[in-house]
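Chain A, query sequence.
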Amino acid sequence: MSLVEILGNTVVDNQGNQFKVEDIIKENKRIGLYFSALWCPGCRMMTPVLSAIYEQMKADNKGLEIIFVSLDRDEKSWKSYFSKMPWKSLEFKDKSKRTKVISFTSHAF
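Chain A, predicted structure.
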């Protein structure tokens, strides 16, 4: 199964702009999936650390994109938390896509 089949055709940034997953794959050597939620204290501590690493890798042209897979309980929480992230995300409203990614990755390892 390809990453496009798993993630779907598009992801968004925290401004609501859409990006084709196919283009993200072509432009980056590494794609990271970040499973996190606003309600998770450890996640909230990890996000700034990961953001700094991400920003440095982007500045160094290391070919990294991260896609946030929200485990939040509602869209308001997702929007609030995602607004602090510099990478892309699956849209919260597409629960079936998020569930598919979570299910696939839990069986992949």
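The mean pLDDT is 93. The radius of gyration is 13 Å.
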